[in-house]
Amino acid sequence: MGRLSVAVQKENEESLRQTGASGGATFLLAGQIGNEPHGLYLIHPQCKVIKATPEKPLICGSPLELVVVPAGSLSMAHQIKVEAGDPSLNTMIDVWIEAQREYLSRLPSLPCEKENGD
Fold this sequence. Notes:
The protein contains 4 helices and 5 strands; from the N terminus they run ααβββββαα. The chain is of the alpha+beta class and 118 residues long. The protein folds into 2 domains: 1-55, no CATH class; 61-118, no CATH class. A 3-stranded antiparallel β-sheet has the order 1-2-3, with no helix packed on it. Strands 4-5 form a two-stranded antiparallel sheet. The protein is extended and about 60 Å long. It starts with a helix and ends with a helix.
């Protein structure tokens, strides 16, 4: 997918430059191959690929497009697109921020904080 994106960018580079546009696109690719565990990857316009892990979750902005393909299936069960300004996106962002605050407040103090009496 990354190589194809780069090839399309190069193929259309001159005409895009003339209009002040860019052919670059960032993709989130998620899925499962056979019985392997599900995976999530961020593919940058320059073909750099980052795999999501619990230690390194991926963060993205709008528009947000989601396709759900159940494990072991090759058919889409659901497909949605959420644009910037959509109330449901604002709700998702608010819930995400609040969840981060809640869980950060639960973390134990760091050794340096205990030493300084913080």
